[in-house]
Amino acid sequence: MQVAIIDSGGANIGSVRYALERLGVDSVLTRDWPVIQRAARVILPGVGAAAVAMARLRDADLARRIGTLQQPVLGICLGMQLLFDSSDEGGTPIPMLGIIPGKISAITRGTDARGATLRVPHMGWNTLEPEQPDPIMDALGQPPWMYFVHGYAAPISAHTLASVDYGQRYSALVRKDNFYGAQFHPERSAGDGARLLDNFIKLTRAKE
Amino acid sequence: MSLAKRIIPCLDVRAGRVVKGVRFRDHKDMGDILELAQRYRDQGADELVFYDISASPEGRTLDMDWVGRVARNLDIPFCVAGGIRSLDNARKILAAGADKISVNSPALEDPQLIDRLVAEFGSQCIVAGIDSIEVDGNWQVKQYTGDPDKTRDSRRATLDWVREVCDRGAGEIVLNCMSFDGVRRGYDIRQLQAVRAVAPCPLIASGGAGKVQHFTDVFNQADVDGALAASIFHSGELPVPVLKSALAEAAIEVRI
Q1: What is the ipTM of this complex?
Q2: Is A187 labeled as catalytic in the residue annotation?
Q3: Chain B, 217-256: which have a CB under 8 Å from a chain A CB?
Q4: CB-based contact B75 A113, cutoff 8 Å
Q5: Chain A closest CA to B19's CA: distance in Å?
Q6: Which residues in chain A are contacts of B68 at CB distance < 8 A?
Q7: CB of A145 within 8 Å of any CB in chain B?
Q8: Cβ(B166)–Cβ(B212) below 8 Å
Q9: What is the bridge-based pairing of β-strands B126-135 and B172-177?
Q10: Do B76 and A190 touch (CB under 8 A)?
């Protein structure tokens, strides 16, 4: 099996490749549509600014094509956010891939349940709270700990598979049809992250 | 559940080996980078920081080989620091698989470096490392601390510099309290509280950890997001799992 990692220019591309390598999975880093289309699985990584990443996908003529993919696709961090309709990042709404309905907004500053001030970005290990069962979450720890680094987030919706609590609840893991998105970094989330990536690789039904 | 407090072993790297000094002097060899990194990962460390302490004073950037080796083998986040003074350096380190880069002396030489790094790579991977020392009742930032002969006063007040790096977009601050480093008498709670009060981003305490109580104190009293330590972990005196169980017992949220 080959996994295509879409070269979105983000800084976590190396880590994603290594994580797949540790699972014994071959991957290719590419912006070449035929290669992406043929791959058994597609990963859209991303770290950095939404506008820059979208421009890069448009330049490679991928922005309008990614939504047509039929195999399981996993967006990671900014790559997950790119799957949504738009982002408020930088003030003016940025149109994105529009595969999953919803808008990405800045994490609300404030205090947590204990009254401690919330720092932005939300950076560090937090737990997933499952909202709907899905094979991608099979056999995770109780609770599953994942590593998050983000200043913007997706709201809870019908597409939320798992949420994360940071002052309020946000989408941590989403799915629409064959498109999955993880706000956290499975490639840097130790055992639970590796398990989730492995589950993604082993998904049997791309579409329901 | 909520965001866990992070336990971060720090590995000072010189010439490709892990070393450790006392008050930034007299460095002893502690072992191979990859071996130590994997040991900490297996013990449940939340993150690792690698400081190439020979890089800045010698005016060169760190050698890249080990960054890729660490990235390939490690499945927890890690940060690399040491003489990163251009977008190109930063890009290479991040592309090699580091999750964050930390800038210290070069940012003092050229504060706009932080703005440029943030614009290019995003706040989330840009950490400001600050070496601070108390001089006549004031906290001052030190520069080129990797080599005692080259260490000098940056002529900046620590709290002013913290505000500035935050304004410039740094996504995290690691505050090394130099008078407390390596002597294991506890973190500099007073200074960390002062920095906490002016820093809107995550703050990592560094310098002074000697026993479990020091960690509970720094989390409970200075509300830091993570605690970094070296000697106490390298010596095997306080294994990470022992520390984490003790913190959990003290009702501090940790990843176990």
Answers
A1: 0.89
A2: yes
A3: 223, 225-226, 255
A4: no
A5: 25
A6: 14
A7: yes
A8: no
A9: parallel
A10: yes
Q: Using alpha carbons only, give the angle A110, A115, A116 rounded to the nearest 5 degrees.
A: 75
- Picking from A19, A47, A49, the nearest residue to B75 by CB comes out as A19
Question: Looking at beta carbons, which residues of chain B come within 8 Å of A123?
Answer: 124, 171-172, 202, 225
Residue of B nearest to A20 (CA): B72
> What is d(CA B75, CA B62) in angstroms, rounded to the nearest whole number?
22
Q: What is the dihedral sign for C-alpha B106, B112, B115, B121? A: negative
- Is the predicted pLDDT of residue B56 greater than 70, yes or no? no
Q: Per-residue pLDDT tens for A85-143?
A: 999 987 889 999 999 999 999 998 888 777 777 888 899 999 999 999 999 999 999 99
Is B14 within 8 Å of chain A by CB? Answer: no
Task: Encode chain B in three state secondary structure.
Answer: CCCCCEEEEEEEEECCEEEEEECCEEEEEEEEHHHHHHHHHHHCCCCEEEEECCCCCCCCCCCCHHHHHHHHHCCCCEEEECCCCCHHHHHHHHHCCCCEEEECHHHHHCCHHHHHHHHHHCHHHEEEEEEEEEECCEEEEEECCCCCCCCEEEEEEHHHHHHHHHHCCCCEEEEEEHHHCCCCCCCCHHHHHHHHHHCCCCEEEECCCCCHHHHHHHHHHHCCCEEEECHHHHCCCCCHHHHHHHHHHCCCCCCC
- Residues of A whose CB is below 8 A from B203: 119
Contact yes or no for B57/B144 (Cβ under 8 A):
yes
Q: What is the span of the domain harbouring residue B225? A: 6-249
> Does residue B209 contact residue B163 with C-beta atoms inside 8 Å?
no
Tokens in use for A128? Answer: 């997933």
Within a domain: B256: no
Is the bond into A121 cis (omega within 30 degrees of 0)?
Answer: yes
Query: How many A-B residue pairs are in contact by the CB < 8 A criterion?
Result: 106
Check if A150 is active-site: no
Contact criterion met (CB < 8 Å) for B6 and A21: no
Number of domains in chain B: 1
Among candidate residues A122, A150, A159, A185, the one labeled active-site is A185
Domain membership flag for residue B255: no
Q: With an 8 Å Cβ cutoff, are A125 and B201 in contact?
A: no
**Residue B131 within any structural domain of the chain:** yes
R_g of chain A computed on alpha carbons: 16
B49 falls within a domain: yes
Kindly report the CATH class assigned to A2-202. Answer: alpha beta
- pLDDT tens per residue across span B75-101: 999 999 887 888 988 988 888 889 999
Look up the pTM and report it. Answer: 0.92
CATH code, domain carrying B48: 3.20.20.70
Q: Which residues of B touch A15 (CB under 8 A)?
A: 71, 97, 99
